[in-house]
Amino acid sequence: MRRWLIALMLFVGACTSEITPAGQSEFERWLSAHASRAPAFARFEAMLEREGVADVVPARELWLTDRLAPQCVVEPFTMPPEETWPHIVPTLRFVRDHVEPMIGQVTVASGYRDQAFNDCVRGASRSTHRAFHALDLVPRNPSVTRERLIAVLCPLHARQGARFDIGMGIYQARRFHIDATRYRRWGADFRAASSPCGSTDDPDQRA
Questions:
Q1: Domains of the chain (ranges plus CATH)?
Q2: Measuring CA to CA, how many Å separate 30 from each of 111, 134, 164, 193?
Q3: What pLDDT, in 10s, does the model give residues 37-66?
């Protein structure tokens, strides 16, 4: 019962709220609260630069803690383990090369999730967010409606998803998920059958 209540809360939150981009001042306060954070973030930015993906989204957004379940948020940002940092690069490349040319710039709603947060929101045990492969995103341009998002992303995923091993979920409102681990799709209830693009074979695609 608790699992379904949390799922309903996330569902309602996705329906009724847009994502506010993570502010630089808030991030700087978080960085300065612990001596190890700023040097680690500098290494993270350097990695993104080396991989050619430093300008896809503001780097601080990649460490943002998902705000849809505020009772689960301990810190406003979460530093992924350093060994996972390269995992996000293929996802960022797909967003840069295929998603943003179609819908414009995006804001990160969710990136890495640590074990405590994932447990709190009753996320899938094999969630691609856990290993920093995945991003939940929202178009920055308010004129990109949910209907437009579906009209653009569904054909894009059909054309390029299998080639790049892209998982794509389209949730309520304008929030959607991209990861570069395995070709599949799902919708608001995290199952393939609810995808507005049509289903794939696996019935439960929670990521």
A1: 2-194 (3.30.1380.10)
A2: 17, 23, 35, 40
A3: 999 999 999 999 999 999 999 999 999 999
CB within 8 A of 4, min separation 6: which ones? none
CA atoms of 22 and 77, how far apart (whole Å) = 9
What tokens does 95 get? 């967003």
Measured torsion, CA atoms of residues 63, 206, 104, 113, in degrees rounded to the nearest 10: 0
Each residue's pLDDT tens digit, 122-158: 888 789 999 999 999 999 999 999 999 999 999 999 9
Give the integer Cα–Cα distance in Å for 1 and 7.
10
Residue that is written with structure tokens 């967010």 in the block: 129
Strand partners, 167: 179, 184
Cα 33 versus chain centre, distance: 25
Q: The tokens of 144 are what?
A: 């990109």
Give the strand order in the sheet containing 184-186. 106-110, 134-139, 176-179, 167-170, 184-186
Residue labelled with tokens 């045990």:
125
Contacts of 205 (CB under 8 A, 6+ apart): 167, 169, 184, 185, 186, 190, 191, 192
Residue 60: name the closest of 11, 10, 3, 112 by CA: 112
> Counting Cβ atoms within 10 Å, is residue 142 exposed (0-12), middle (13-18) or buried (19+)?
exposed
Gap between the Cα atoms of 154 and 169, Å rounded: 10
